[in-house]
């Protein structure tokens, strides 16, 4: 996990071995069993998670009890309820493991300390936030302007590693369509 994480950081911000060893002391390794909730609606959120192995989902529960999946996090992705994490307020999302997972956990205070002490980490986290913001904007525009078939095509292009890995009901929730609609469009040639 340590070498995988170093490679992840160095894709964005090269660092020395000594600096990386110091950075790594701020992270706690954790194993998460399938179907475990690591952040629940209403929790105070003081940590973010980097996924070494497995898949997590971040979802929002509507008043009628229906779940809307906001995003996934697989290997080399970060996840938290960032509105709660950055603003020190209760979570509105639930983050749950869809598979057995191995993650590195970073507290908000440790993230702030790393960014103050190590310019490369400040740059690294800024680039990650920029990428996430751009991806969310792209997804929102897609949801507003495309039909179910186009949503599915974009999903298969952007996240081929999730096809076959996740149940169709989970993918359908993420796409904002029914399981039946997903079955129909996924069985029709692209």
Description:
The protein is an alpha+beta fold. The model has no long low-confidence stretch (mean pLDDT 90). Helix 4 crosses helix 5 and helix 7 packs across helix 8. The protein is 46% helix and 22% strand. It is globular, with a radius of gyration of 18 Å. It holds the Pfam family cNMP_binding.
Amount of beta strand: 15-25%
Q: Would you identify the regions where 5 or more consecutive residues have pLDDT less than 50? A: none
Termini Cα gap: 37 Å
Question: What's the CATH architecture name of one domain?
Answer: Sandwich
Largest sheet: 4 strands, antiparallel
The CATH topology of one domain: Jelly Rolls
Taking all Cα atoms into account, the compactness measure Rg is 18 Å
The CATH class of one domain is identified as Mainly Beta
* H/E element order: HHEEEEEEHEEHHHHH
Helix share of residues? 40-55%
Count helical runs.
8
Structural class: alpha+beta
Shape: globular
Strand order of the largest sheet: 1-8-3-6
Let me know the number of strands. Answer: 8
CATH superfamily of one domain: Jelly Rolls
Average pLDDT across residues? 90
Organism: Flavobacterium procerum
InterPro entries: cNMP-bd_dom (IPR000595), cNMP-bd_dom_sf (IPR018490), RmlC-like_jellyroll (IPR014710)
Protein name: Crp/Fnr family transcriptional regulator
Outline the fold blueprint.
Blueprint: H1 2-10, H2 17-24, E1 28-32, E2 37-39, E3 47-53, E4 56-61, E5 67-73, E6 78-79, H3 82-87, E7 94-97, E8 101-107, H4 108-117, H5 119-145, H6 148-158, H7 168-175, H8 179-186
Antiparallel strand pairs: 1-8, 2-7, 3-6, 3-8, 4-5, 4-7
């Amino acid at each position: 996990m340590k070498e995988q994480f170093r490679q992840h950081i160095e894709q964005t911000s090269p660092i020395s071995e000594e600096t990386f060893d110091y950075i790594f002391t701020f992270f706690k390794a954790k194993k998460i069993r399938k179907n475990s909730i690591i952040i629940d609606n209403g929790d105070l959120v003081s940590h973010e998670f980097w996924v070494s192995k497995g898949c997590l989902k971040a979802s929002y529960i509507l008043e009628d009890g229906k779940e809307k999946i906001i995003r996934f996090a697989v290997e080399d992705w970060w996840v938290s309820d960032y509105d709660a994490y950055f603003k020190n307020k209760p979570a509105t999302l639930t983050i749950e493991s869809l598979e057995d997972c191995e993650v590195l956990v970073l507290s908000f205070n440790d993230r702030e300390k790393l960014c103050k002490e190590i310019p490369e980490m400040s740059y690294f986290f800024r680039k990650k936030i920029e990428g996430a913001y751009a991806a969310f904007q792209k997804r929102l525009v897609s949801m507003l302007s495309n039909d179910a078939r186009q949503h599915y095509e974009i999903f298969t292009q952007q996240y081929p590693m999730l096809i076959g890995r996740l149940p169709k009901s989970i993918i359908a929730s993420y796409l904002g369509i029914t399981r039946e609609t997903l079955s129909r469009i996924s069985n029709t040639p692209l």
